[in-house]
Design goal:
- The structure is a single chain.
- The chain has one domain: TIM Barrel (Alpha-Beta Barrel), CATH 3.20.20.140.
- The protein is about 40% helix and about 15% strand.
- The protein has nine helices and eight strands.
- An eight-stranded parallel beta sheet has the order 1-2-3-4-5-6-7-8, with helices on both faces.
- α6 links the parallel β6 and β7.
- The chain is globular and about 45 Å long.
Amino acid sequence: MLIDTHCHLDAAEFDADREEVAQAARQSNVSVIVVPAVERANFGAVSSVCREYPGCVAAFGIHPMAVARAREEDIQALRETIAREQPIAVGEIGLDRFFPQRDDAQQLYYFVEQLKIAQAADLPVLLHVRRAIDQVLQQLRRIGVRGGIAHAFNGSRQQAEEFIRLGFKLGFGGAMTFPRAHRIRKLAATLPLESIVLETDAPDIPPEWKVGARNTPDQLPRIAQTLALLRGVALEVIAETTTANAITVLPRLARLI
């Protein structure tokens, strides 16, 4: 079996055929799909998807690219949703220093508040980190959480090792499948396999064979095969180890296995 540790199955891109997409994932041996929220407005949609489709589990958080729409009361709503829904993680949260129309102080405020929520609830976090790895690591050292996943990891070896030291796994997905993605592929090939989990980020970050098309969770086996080829091991080893890694870092997944 495989676990897609990051897939936005609630997204509007799946409204027309969500049932077929979920079924295709199950038929492709993707038995568990982690569905992270990105703002208070889609907490309900994420909950509904995870109730309706077998193997889907929720995480709740406010994405750094959504904080411009966030309000102070959304933090309390997040606390209440976590207490009520018992998600597997707090996420998707983090910092994004890539897109130009942003408020860095506002992003940092919501990130820190959500780390505090995760700490109080003893939950791992699903991190969005873009051009802000050192800033995110600084906050993780300051506010200890029980680890989590650095989604779509694209940092240095040293930064990867620091995430691992802090109890995190590193998410690898479609970006790893591009032959010219030398740094990501080298990390995927040489980091301890016990530090890696697999993801699609569907409908985003499509693999090399779906450039320009919608990404879907049933692509995870081919992504896993890429990792197997990079490491020179059997696909079964990748599936078994990355599944165990996901359960280790997101322990509430164990109730689904």
